[in-house]
């Protein structure tokens, strides 16, 4: 049985949970992280020296970094429609996974901490405005991509890339800020909402 360490409210843990749902992989999840078992213990650091969730244990395999984990699970237990076998099709999926982890995440980090987490360290109005502006710019990039595909982020079929991107879209929609009109993104969110995995794990850890 796959063991997943991490609280269900974590966006990175939810990547793993949603992936498991898509491939029908059973798992056991344990609450670790903020508000639960601390990740700075020797026990947890032996699994992930970064003291971050998620971590998985799959038999004698231990892995951390959410995007690495979902790629591993798709490779080992999934099917080629989720994570294609051919180099170019897989690269198209990977580029959007990496884009979410680097460019998109970096853009929304300050605004999310300020507006959702209400962090006292993230209340600079200029920094907040800059973060919202960057976040909107990257969401407009996603809008153009979804307009071009008419379906999912990497093409006509749902793929592994739609898991991290879909979770980021949910975060965008749920953060209290003025949202520009992005009809393709709205249609995409509705399309994802038809999937059982998204309904279970896509909305901030809530059913």
Describe this structure in words.
With 207 residues, the protein is an alpha+beta fold. It has helices spanning 11-23, 42-45, 66-77, 87-115, 125-149, 162-174, 183-192, 196-201, and strands at residues 2-5, 27-30, 55-58, 61-64. Strands 2-1-3-4 form a four-stranded mixed sheet, covered by helices on one side. Helix 1 packs parallel to helix 3 (66-77). It is globular, with a radius of gyration of 17 Å.
Lay out the secondary structure.
Blueprint: E1 2-5, H1 11-23, E2 27-30, H2 42-45, E3 55-58, E4 61-64, H3 66-77, H4 87-115, H5 125-149, H6 162-174, H7 183-192, H8 196-201
Parallel strand pairs: 1-2
Antiparallel strand pairs: 1-3, 3-4
Strand content: 5-15%
Mean pLDDT, to the nearest integer, reads 95
Estimated radius of gyration: 17 Å
Taking strands numbered 1, 2, ... along the chain, how are they ordered across the largest sheet? 2-1-3-4
Q: Got a strand count?
A: 4
> From the helix content, strand content and strand pairing, which structural class follows?
alpha+beta
Poorly predicted regions: none
The oligomeric state of the chains shown is single chain
The biggest sheet amounts to:
4 strands, mixed
Q: Percent range for helical residues? A: 40-55%
Protein name: Glutathione S-transferase family protein
Domain GST N-terminal: 1-81
Domain GST C-terminal: 86-207
InterPro entries: Glutathione-S-Trfase_C-like, Glutathione-S-Trfase_C_sf, Glutathione_S-Trfase, Glutathione_S-Trfase_N, GST_C, Thioredoxin-like_sf
């Amino acid at each position: 049985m796959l063991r997943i360490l991490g609280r269900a409210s974590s966006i990175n843990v939810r990547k793993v949970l949603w992936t498991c749902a898509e491939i029908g992989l059973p798992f056991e999840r344990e609450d670790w992280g903020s508000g639960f078992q601390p990740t700075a213990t020797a026990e947890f650091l032996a699994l992930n020296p970064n003291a971050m969730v998620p971590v998985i244990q799959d038999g004698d395999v231990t892995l951390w970094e959410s995007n690495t984990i979902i790629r591993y699970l798709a490779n080992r237990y999934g099917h080629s429609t989720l994570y294609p076998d051919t180099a170019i099709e897989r690269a198209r999926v990977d580029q959007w996974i990496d884009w979410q982890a680097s460019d998109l995440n970096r853009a929304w980090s300050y605004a999310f901490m300020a507006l959702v987490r209400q962090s006292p360290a993230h209340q600079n109005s200029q920094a907040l405005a800059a973060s919202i502006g960057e976040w909107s710019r990257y969401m407009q990039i996603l809008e153009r991509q979804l307009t071009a595909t008419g379906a999912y982020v990497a093409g006509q079929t749902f793929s592994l890339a739609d898991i991290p991107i879909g979770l980021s879209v949910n975060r965008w929609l749920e953060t209290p800020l003025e949202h520009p009109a992005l009809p393709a993104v709205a249609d995409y969110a509705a399309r994802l909402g038809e999937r059982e995995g998204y309904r279970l794990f896509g909305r901030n850890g809530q059913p």
